[in-house]
Amino acid sequence: MDDFDLILQNGIKFGRGGDKKRDDDGKVKTKAKKKKYITGAHGSGSAMQKAKYRQQRATRHKK
To answer: Which sign, positive or negative, has the C-alpha torsion 55, 56, 62, 63?
Structure first.
C-alpha cells in the first residue's frame, strides 16, 4: 500500500530513461540537405527540377 500512496502523492514520471545523450555530431542525415541533391548535381530529374525552383525562389526579388 505504501507504493500506491507514493504514486498518488508524487505521480508517475514517464521519461526517456537514463542519461542517454542524443548524437548531434553535425552529420547530415537526409539526402534533401546534401549539397549535391540541393543543386541537382547528382542527375536525378526530380532533384534538378527542385533545384530549378529553389534557384527561381532565391532570385525572385533580387534586382
So the answer is: positive
Choose among 34, 33, 38: nearest CA to 53: 38
Task: Read off the pTM.
Answer: 0.38
Q: Kindly state the cell numbers that stand for 35.
A: 549539397
Tens-digit pLDDT profile for residues 5-62: 888 888 887 776 666 666 656 665 666 667 776 777 777 788 788 888 988 998 987 7
Which candidate, 62, 63, 61, 41, places its Cα nearest to that of 51? 41
Cβ pair 40, 47 in contact under 8 A: yes
